Amino acid sequence: MIHSLFLINCSGDIFLEKHWKSVVSQSVCDYFFEAQEKAADVENVPPVISTPHHYLISIYRDKLFFVSVIQTEVPPLFVIEFLHRVADTFQDYFGECSEAAIKDNVVIVYELLEEMLDNGFPLATESNILKELIKPPTILRSVVNSITGSSNVGDTLPTGQLSNIPWRRAGVKYTNNEAYFDVVEEIDAIIDKSGSTVFAEIQGVIDACIKLSGMPDLSLSFMNPRLLDDVSFHPCIRFKRWESERILSFIPPDGNFRLISYRVSSQNLVAIPVYVKHSISFKENSSCGRFDITIGPKQNMGKTIEGITVTVHMPKVVLNMNLTTTQGSYTFDPVTKVLTWDVGKITPQKLPSLKGLVNLQSGAPKPEENPSLNIQFKIQQLAISGLKVNRLDMYGEKYKPFKGVKYVTKAGKFQVYY
Amino acid sequence: MSAAPAYSEDKGGSAGPGEPEYGHDPASGGIFSSDYKRHDDLKEMLDTNKDSLKLEAMKRIVAMIARGKNASDLFPAVVKNVACKNIEVKKLVYVYLVRYAEEQQDLALLSISTFQRGLKDPNQLIRASALRVLSSIRVPIIVPIMMLAIKEAASDMSPYVRKTAAHAIPKLYSLDSDQKDQLIEVIEKLLADKTTLVAGSVVMAFEEVCPERIDLIHKNYRKLCNLLIDVEEWGQVVIISMLTRYARTQFLSPTQNESLLEENAEKAFYGSEEDEAKGAGSEETAAAAPARKPYIMDPDHRLLLRNTKPLLQSRSAAVVMAVAQLYFHLAPKAEVGVIAKALVRLLRSHSEVQYVVLQNVATMSIKRRGMFEPYLKSFYIRSTDPTQIKILKLEVLTNLANETNIPTVLREFQTYIRSMDKDFVAATIQAIGRCATNIGRVRDTCLNGLVQLLSNRDELVVAESVVVIKKLLQMQPAQHGEIIKHLAKLTDNIQVPMARASILWLIGEYCEHVPRIAPDVLRKMAKSFTAEEDIVKLQVINLAAKLYLTNSKQTKLLTQYVLSLAKYDQNYDIRDRARFTRQLIVPSEQGGALSRHAKKLFLAPKPAPVLESSFKDRDHFQLGSLSHLLNAKATGYQELPDWPEEAPDPSVRNVEEEDLSLIETHVGLLGEYTEVPEWTKCSNREKRKEKEKPFYSDSEGESGPTESADSDPESESESDSKSSSESGSGESSSESDNEDQDEDEEKGRGSESEQSEEDGKRKTKKKVPEGKGEASSSDEDSDSSSSTSESEMTSESEEEQLEPASWRRKTPPSSKRAPATKEISLLDLEDFTPPSVQPVSPPAIVSTSLAADLEGLTLTDSTLVPSLLSPVSRVGRQELLHRVAGEGLVVDYTFSRQPFSGDPHMVSVHIHFSNSSDTPIKGLHVGTPKLPAGISIQEFPEIESLAPGESATAVMGINFCDSTQAANFQLCTQTRQFYVSIQPPVGELMAPVFMSENEFKKEQGKLMGMNEITEKLMLPDTCRSDHVVVQKVTATANLGRVPCGTSDEYRFAGRTLTSGSLVLLTLDARQAGAAQLTVNSEKMVIGTMLVKDVIQALTQ
């Protein structure tokens, strides 16, 4: 299936290669570079490229390209999904998935890649199993290892590999048994220029951090499970229980993982926590324009909205912007023409606004296209869909775990048209 | 160790002094010398007997390999360490060996004996890794050893080793394909393996070695289907795509009948998305074409569809896509719809995933447009999307556009045209063109919109518009003389060659519509001829020729001038064309044969171009495959076979019974609910009993309100947080504090959303034609009932069947109530939609220009119409028996709120039966009910026979004895009995009474103290008008309104059905949404529950 993997940084250096079958020359990447050049923009490099003898399937993650070489028919999503899993694993092991981290830990990376694929077919991809096979690097361990010559590699087969619950390692022990759940919801919305919602949808995830000893069997129930319109599960969740009772019943992996991700459909209309008033106007035959944004809370459920950032891609003819803001700070990058306004918190008494002049290239006609606004915000302790965790029960272990649920609402792809 | 300091320095980075050739001129000899020296270091380190040094050396060598540098000269030094005791060194040596063994085959042989020893190791990990490395060394001479090792490992005790053996098979096959026959034997053996660990890997091997040996699958088919859910994700993808191919060879097409009556099938598809057994579509067609044998799906085919469906909820995009393609290729039309939701979900994923999914959606949306129509908005484009994603989304939007949604789509396109991304704008214009050709009704609108774009400042936009306009005009040129004139004017300004060429062609083609302008254009073009681009020049010649034929008087000289210019052009194409044209049109002495037909040749009516999606017919490739994505056959692609005419013998899949039962026990955590460890079940059941006790003792009417509140989820969460604070956590208790706060907040929001829901409903009512409205509502309906329907899975035995039912009963009423609200509102939609509703928007809107459309959007959104909900039971139609559990019999019930004629103490329940199977259901009646004390049932008269597709309604009365206990009874047909239960919401246990305000107050005075329950609440903004409050209360409980003097007070009265006790409800609304709810009733339990339900209804 997957023949080889090349890791390429932004400047086009191939800094790691791994082959699972016969060696494929680096020159195969030339086709990739060609496509990259054509695309102009990193995001527009086609994920699948056909070359005379191979197919290249690539992903772009954290400023790195993961380019895999394929020789025969394979579902492209299979490869893409796997590459992302590789990047996730690096992230998990080294805290970041960057060129420096990979270069520093090249041996561990190699060992990981060796375990994750056998002859191009995925072998062990669960992080719990990998961590038993290859221990993640810590400062202490590397010091100890360099002195004693012991290694990061486990010498027994992780029991998870053989059991029906391959995602959990055995013999987990904690002195403090804790289970935390983060309900994170993101609002995806398109708001048109009059302020009405064209499209809105809530995308939520429940991320769990489970540090429980032994083999706990958890069940998590919701006050209003019917809200969840479309759910995708971590493999640990018993599907039948959900189907029949709407309870999430599972033996969790150890550590951090994504329990479910869900969508609350646009049928239950989504509350939009902020509103934006904005205008941009250019005078005919003048190299000047007026620009004005005000942002205010709308359906915020009485919570403070914080971390508000407004990003506007201005038309190309805009030279500079002279603005004054009542709150926060703004920057305008004259090269990329991106205006970023970091607002911070909204207090309803005084609505933050940003207004001023836009300078255009002299002589250029007034721009026809209108910029659109992208808004970021965050509301703590609120799940905007109204989803609430009812309770968490644990079976199979005697101790009393420490439980906690946190709710956060964020803006996802939140866009306002002019 | 003299070398030690040297490498301890460069430990940190791999780019240390250990690799000095970086930055050196490759031609200088320095490389080699330093290379040798460094390798000497390494060799020395490898030769020591200190593991730490060996490890260090190996790490550096691996780092070299990783950077793609040659380390092959170290082979002898490294290979010696293959027997090293240190496991990490060993592993790194393996890495090295696998990389270089192919190049140094002789030396590699030295290591073989170590692996052979490893294969016999008692540790399974070592056995497995020995086999892994042995099979990865691509040295042909050891093929027999590999073969032997694989055979042995295939019958190893450890499933992990067997899995490794499965992985080794394709490796050996690629090394020596002569071993195929022997390998197939091993595959056959491993296919019979019953562990999930092996299944994925062996199917992978099967696909690579012998995908044509479909016969090997027969015996394992059912096992694979059953194991599927527990196989790891990667294996699932491979197995699903293999089974897709298998099913195409073994089963009959589920759509073979449907295709005869495309129309009907399409309709059925909307109606029954969750169809389990057989779509209504096939019934209809079966009825329409009685001559054909009715199609009955092979149970194995059904098994595959059923077992893959849950995987649509996998976290892995690859698995979801695999199931989606399986459904697309194998499922009856009526069932394919289920995949849409999951695919739409993937659009939130990484952009690469989006790219692949959108390609597939684009293909699917051509064939099954209806499937994605409800998700139209999910394909709306954001300015932050990469261009390649934008263009794919545009493709999907265009495919989804139809008569009904076109105004919305066009309005959206209008926004895109103002985007800054010019490639995308051009694609949008193309898309508008396609919409215009496909949907005749909006052609004029689009054309007008495009003409407006001609005054755009951006030339690319204008050029693209011209090209598209040209195509559109070809469809009905007669009416568009004006536009052609407008275009002719543009020739002065527009510079983009393609656009100029298009304009010239148009003028030439329709010169009879613009007889005055055409010669003038030619004059201008003749002037600038030499400066034009090639395609423009060709079109100038073309124009000249056409004008010469139609209007030779005016243009004869001009034409000759142009032709002479062209004769000396640099481009041979143009010279050629000029020569050819001249011969054709200018009559000469000889060879006049052709010029007589010149008019016919040049001015023949040309068929209008058909603007088609580039994704048309891509579905002959298996969806989700690489070949589909590239639209070309990839190496190793297995064609998806056509359905067979006659089904092959299904008995080949039969396996010994005991075999199957063995497998069943292996089905793990994800699969069977019955697999939940015994203790979980017990404790759950106990708890349930505890909880139920107070709940059910209500019927005696004496238990206190606090007790019955036990089932309240709120108090549960309270006790929950208490228990956690007991465990000494400060944080979690504060957490729960927050939660409480949240709750208040949430109430406010809830009502908001309800209001907006209505809003949305109104919108749909306006825009959606009846068919679609029904689709989405029934869609929702079936969704919400899925929890009950799934109980079928476990209902193998009677005992088990009872269990899920009681589980359901356990769910606190509040959580059950919430979705019910949703349900009713959606159902109502159906009732309210008048049958003759206009599709989407009246044509008047359509014919206005695009700009007007854009304005229109805001108008329709902001107008508010008062809601029209009638005070019927909030609990809508509920499912009593799902079609699968009922083997085709669907039973729903509603509380009609009409007095039951037989017995005034009974609640009348309307039961709707419909038969969706294909055999008549006979003798429907109620079997011996097992009822708790006090509850009685008045059965409905036996329904003698229910023909397929028919439905019937019967009324039965149930005396619930003023409790919310469920009435369990049996529903019998001639052949089967179904256990069903009806649980009434508390609001249905009463009937309205009418009284005056004074009477009310008097009665209320009698029911004070213990009998009064008061609760404070906040009315959300949306719920402050009289109408809404009254409607919500009456929807929740069957009470009658009592006239009331003050405006802020609402009174309702009713009597419980059995005992006739009064139930008085007062809602006192105060300032700013604060309100107080009072219920006075002798039946305190009913009172408490009613308060809870009403508050919930009001605040959500």
Automatic annotation (TrEMBL), chain A:
Start and end residues of each MHD domain: 176-417
Subcellular location: Golgi apparatus; Cytoplasmic vesicle membrane
InterPro entries reported for this sequence: Adaptor_comp_med_subunit, AP2_Mu_C_sf, AP_mu_sigma_su, Clathrin_mu, Clathrin_mu_CS, Longin-like_dom_sf, MHD
Keyword list, A-Z: Cytoplasmic vesicle, Golgi apparatus, Membrane, Protein transport, Transport
Keyword Transport: yes
CDD domains linked to this entry: AP-3_Mu3A_Cterm, AP3_Mu_N
GO biological process: intracellular protein transport; vesicle-mediated transport
Family: Belongs to the adaptor complexes medium subunit family.
Name of the protein in its database record: AP-3 complex subunit mu-1
Organism: Macaca fascicularis (Crab-eating macaque)
Automatic annotation (TrEMBL), chain B:
Keywords: Cytoplasmic vesicle, Golgi apparatus, Membrane, Phosphoprotein, Protein transport, Transport
Biased composition (Acidic residues): 709-718, 734-745, 793-802
GO CC annotations on file: AP-3 adaptor complex; clathrin-coated vesicle membrane; Golgi apparatus
Domain AP-3 complex subunit beta C-terminal: 819-965
Membrane topology annotation: Peripheral membrane protein
Amino acid composition bias (Low complexity), ranges on this chain: 722-733
Compositional bias (Basic and acidic residues): 684-695
Entry superkingdom: Eukaryota
Coiled coil ranges: none
InterPro entries found in the cross-reference section: AP3_beta (IPR026740), AP3B1/2_C (IPR056314), AP3B_C (IPR029390), AP_beta (IPR026739), ARM-like (IPR011989), ARM-type_fold (IPR016024), Clathrin/coatomer_adapt-like_N (IPR002553), Clathrin_app_Ig-like_sf (IPR013041)
Subcellular locations according to the entry: Cytoplasmic vesicle, Clathrin-coated vesicle membrane; Golgi apparatus
GO biological process, one term: intracellular protein transport
Region of interest (Disordered), residue spans: 1-30, 684-820
Pfam families: Adaptin_N, AP3B1_C, AP3B1_C_2
Role played: Subunit of non-clathrin- and clathrin-associated adaptor protein complex 3 (AP-3) that plays a role in protein sorting in the late-Golgi/trans-Golgi network (TGN) and/or endosomes. The AP complexes mediate both the recruitment of clathrin to membranes and the recognition of sorting signals within the cytosolic tails of transmembrane cargo molecules. AP-3 appears to be involved in the sorting of a subset of transmembrane proteins targeted to lysosomes and lysosome-related organelles.
Family: Belongs to the adaptor complexes large subunit family.
UniProt-recorded name of the protein: AP-3 complex subunit beta
Annotated organism of origin: Macaca fascicularis
Recorded name of the encoding gene: AP3B2
